[in-house]
Amino acid sequence: MATFELYRRSTIGMCLTETLDEMVSNGILSPELAIQVLVQFDKSMTEALETQVKSKVTIKVKVPSVGFDSNSCISCVMDRFDSHILL
Fold first, then answer.
1. What is the DSSP string of the chain?
2. What is the domain partition of the chain in residue ranges?
3. Mind listing the pLDDT tens digit for each residue in 53-84?
4. d(Cα 62, Cα 65) in Å, to the nearest integer?
């Protein structure tokens, strides 16, 4: 999972994903177009947070063990803070 894909786990990202899934299931949207929408969402969220948000947060955590895969480590940390991240 790329870093910018973390925004998909936000409330708005999950709602967008659910809506796109429903639209694909109902034949309103093609799967390819749904993926393009998610990629644009990722880019737009990254750009908006870089240019429009002035506040900064630093989070320090102690990870009990580090796996061989850096993505699993990031996922572990994000799972612990997922309920605290609000956009």
1. --GGGGGGGSHHHHHHHHHHHHHHHTTSS-HHHHHHHHHHHHHHHHHHHHHH-----------S---S-HHHHHHHHHHHHGGG---
2. 3-84
3. 888 777 776 766 655 555 555 555 555 554 44
4. 9
Q: Specify the residue for token string 């925004």.
A: 7
pLDDT at site 18: 95
Asked if 5 and 78 count as a contact pair (C-beta separation under 8 A), the reply is no
C-alpha to C-alpha distance for 6 and 36, rounded to whole angstroms? 16
At 6, list the tokens: 């973390």
Of 59, 51, 47, 41, residue with least CA distance to 5: 41
CATH number for the domain formed by residue range(s) 3-84: 1.10.287.190
Which one is predicted more confidently, 12 or 5?
12
